[in-house]
Amino acid sequence: MRAPASGNGGAVATLPPSPDLNAEASHILTSLPGLDCGLCGYRTCAELAVAAVAHPDVLERCVQREATVSAFAPVGVLETPMGPSLPMAGNTCDSCNVVPPLQARDWKDHLGREYEFVLQTFPEEPGPRETLLPHNPMLTRELRIQKGDTLIGRPLGMSCGCPITHCGVVMDVDERTGVMVWCVTGPLRARREGFKDIGYYSAQAYEGLVTESKSELRIGCRYWFLPRRCMLQWRHSGLINFLARTSRGYQVRIEGLMIG
Question: CB of 173 within 8 A of CB of 140?
Answer without folding.
Answer: yes
